[in-house]
Specification:
Blueprint lengths: L2 H10 L3 H23 L2 H18 L9 H19 L20 H18 L4 H12 L4 H8 L3 H21 L8
Helix pairs in contact: 1-2, 2-3, 2-4, 2-6, 3-4, 4-7, 6-8, 7-8
């Protein structure tokens, strides 16, 4: 039983601290994942809140067929898909207006890393939606191929294909932008 699952079971049993633990642990990652769909960080934050609200109000049953995090992200994806169907036109917030927070002693190094992150995020947003989502879920959230397949309602073969093509497309986009690969 994972931490999220045990927290959810405690919440269902009447311990509201369980829901607080879930929100604290998964909010940032869920919000960034949903941002890959809507490309509006504020809307993604609202959709993440809607996901947690659905857990609180509807109390869906967690079957344990996947990890809790996979299940939660799938609920968030479904809520986002419903929102997108309802609001056909996307609202895009430029990446330059999004805040990147990091605590580093070396200001110059921090600035370079921030600029590189911006370039990677900008390049990611130029990719096809499926590539962007698979890359985010795999590299930033650490989901396995099978977990991503569950979240995105695709076969594992499709996810592997998206991942392969997404890496190629991202590398091409970064090279087009003059991204400098450092040996770290």
């Amino acid at each position: 039983m994972g931490n999220g699952e045990s927290s959810y079971r405690r919440f269902l049993a009447g311990d509201n601290e369980g829901m607080l633990e879930i929100v604290c642990e998964y909010q940032a990652g869920l919000m960034l994942y949903l941002n890959s769909y809507v490309q509006d960080i504020h809307l993604a934050e609202d959709l993440a809140e809607d996901t947690f609200l659905e857990l609180m109000l509807k109390r869906p049953k967690f079957s344990g067929k996947s990890s809790f995090k996979t299940w939660l992200f799938a609920i968030g994806r479904n809520i986002t898909a419903k929102h997108l169907r309802k609001h056909a036109k996307l609202s895009v917030v430029p990446l330059e207006s999004q805040e990147y927070l990091a605590v580093e002693d070396d200001i110059e190094d921090n600035y370079i890393k921030t600029e590189q992150k911006k370039m990677v995020h900008q390049a990611l947003h130029q990719l096809k939606l499926e590539y962007r989502q698979v890359l985010f879920l795999n590299y930033f959230e650490g989901f396995s191929i099978s977990e991503i397949a569950l979240i995105m309602h695709r076969s594992e073969k499709q996810i592997k294909n998206y991942l392969y093509k997404g890496k190629i497309a991202l590398r091409s986009e970064l090279e087009r932008r003059g991204f400098d690969y450092e040996e770290s």
